[in-house]
């Protein structure tokens, strides 16, 4: 089993009120020195079998058409992650 | 005269939209998200609400509902389609209208009687109004900020496709105070405010705001006039 991770962020020119709210809360909790926060989305897609170039191309297509809205968002990264096999026994 | 109102999982204002259709004098036809059939309606309303919980992005999953297949084709062919609030978000996600709706810039849900300027009376959904007319209808949204790139905004303005604009303070950070737009043909209109909530005396905006509370009815009578004329 392999995992493809897709990161989506609002375009830099689109206002991010969620990120602003987080940025406003940080200093109240003592986390100072953070100039700004922008919040994005991470999708983890578990893929059946091997991640071939073809599979990755399909994921990129899904990322560009469904997982993100190109009017307001950018797909900033699509990468393959190896999924650790669950340790045997308990 | 049959006007369909689509119900998605999470739609809230489908009943009110159907009621507005009936008050305007048409037959309201319930359309179901999972039924890829428009049942020969003459026009369609995509109502407000939170289809699919606004998961992923508002309107993003509703766009792929079975009913949207024939709806998108029919809209491209000239079928009158009105998207209100979540319906507007669905129309943008479906690429029937340009741009997108994002979270309100002030981070709060807004719910109030909203003054609007009708800028275009030449769409099938606004012909009952006159350009320059002021109306007051309810506005209630969390993700109502209309955004598009500068080129698209200029194009909308130049082609007279800004249908309604917010009057007074911008309630949600919409670019150029845009409350509603149309496609190039004028048969597809989307807007954030809720005309269907201002169609019956005593149930619309507060009369103290200087309105009789029926300012939204024109959207529904407009499409009837258009169909009678056709």
Description:
The complex is a heterodimer of chains A (90) and B (230). Chain A is of the alpha+beta class. In chain A, 30% of the residues lie in helices and 29% in strands. Chain A has two helices and three strands. The mean pLDDT of chain A is 91. Chain B is of the alpha/beta class and 230 residues long. Chain B has one domain: Rossmann fold. Helices cover 22% and strands 25% of the residues of chain B. Chain B is built from five helices and eleven strands. In chain B, strand 3, helix 2 and strand 4 form a beta-alpha-beta unit. The longest helix of chain B is centred in the C-terminal third of the chain and has 13 residues. Chain B starts with a strand and ends with a helix. The model of chain B has no long low-confidence stretch (mean pLDDT 96). Classes of the chains: A alpha+beta (90), B alpha/beta (230). Chains A and B meet through helix 1 of A and loops of B.
Topology summary:
The complex is a heterodimer of chains A (90) and B (230).
Chain A: E1 2-10, H1 17-28, E2 41-47, H2 53-67, E3 73-82
Antiparallel strand pairs in A: 1-2, 1-3
Chain B: E1 2-7, H1 14-24, E2 27-32, E3 43-46, H2 68-76, E4 81-84, H3 86-93, E5 100-102, E6 110-118, E7 134-141, E8 145-147, H4 150-158, E9 162-166, E10 178-182, E11 188-191, H5 217-229
Parallel strand pairs in B: 1-2, 1-3, 3-4, 4-11
Antiparallel strand pairs in B: 5-8, 6-7, 6-9, 9-10, 10-11
Feature tags:
heterodimer; A: 90 residues; alpha+beta; 3 strands; elongated; B: alpha/beta; Rossmann fold; 9-stranded mixed β-sheet; 5 helices; 22% helix; globular
Give the tally of β-strands of chain B: 11
Main β-sheet, spatial strand arrangement of chain B: 2-1-3-4-11-10-9-6-7
Largest interface, chains and sizes: A-B, 12 and 20 residues
Number of continuous helical runs of chain A: 2
- Might you state the CATH topology name of chain B? Rossmann fold
Given helix and strand content, the structural type of chain A is alpha+beta
Kindly report the oligomeric state of this protein: heterodimer
The CATH architecture of chain B can be given as 3-Layer(aba) Sandwich
CATH superfamily of chain B: Class I glutamine amidotransferase (GATase) domain
**Fraction of residues in helix of chain B:** 10-25%
Note the overall shape of chain A: elongated
Helical residue percent band of chain A: 25-40%
């Amino acid at each position: 089993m392999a995992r493809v991770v897709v990161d989506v962020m609002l375009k830099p020119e689109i206002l991010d009120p969620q990120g602003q709210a987080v940025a406003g809360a940080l200093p109240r909790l003592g986390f100072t020195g953070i100039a700004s926060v922008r919040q994005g989305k991470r999708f983890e897609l578990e893929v059946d079998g091997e991640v071939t170039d073809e599979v990755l191309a399909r994921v990129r297509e899904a990322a560009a058409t469904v997982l993100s809205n190109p009017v307001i968002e950018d797909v900033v990264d699509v990468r393959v992650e190896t999924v650790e096999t669950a340790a045997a026994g308990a | 005269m049959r006007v369909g109102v689509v119900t998605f999982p999470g739609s809230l204002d489908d009943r009110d939209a159907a009621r507005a259709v009936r008050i305007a004098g048409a037959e309201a036809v319930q359309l179901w998200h999972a039924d890829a059939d428009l049942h020969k309606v003459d026009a369609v309303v995509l109502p407000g609400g939170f289809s699919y919980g606004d998961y992923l992005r508002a309107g993003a999953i509703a766009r792929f509902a079975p009913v949207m297949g024939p709806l998108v084709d029919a809209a491209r062919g000239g079928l009158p389609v009105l998207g209100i609030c979540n319906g507007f978000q669905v129309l943008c996600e479906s690429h029937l209208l340009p741009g997108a709706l994002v979270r309100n810039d002030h981070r709060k849900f807004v719910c109030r009687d909203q003054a609007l300027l009708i800028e275009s009376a030449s769409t099938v959904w606004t012909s009952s109004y006159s350009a320059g007319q002021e109306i007051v209808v309810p506005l209630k949204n969390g993700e109502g900020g209309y955004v598009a790139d500068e080129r698209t905004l200029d194009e909308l303005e130049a082609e007279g496709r800004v249908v309604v604009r917010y009057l007074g303070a911008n309630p949600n950070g919409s670019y150029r105070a845009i409350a509603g737009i149309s496609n190039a043909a004028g048969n597809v209109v989307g807007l954030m405010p809720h005309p269907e909530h201002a169609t019956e005396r005593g149930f619309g905006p507060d009369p103290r705001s200087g309105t009789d509370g029926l300012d939204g009815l024109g959207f529904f009578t407009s499409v009837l006039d258009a169909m009678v004329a056709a």
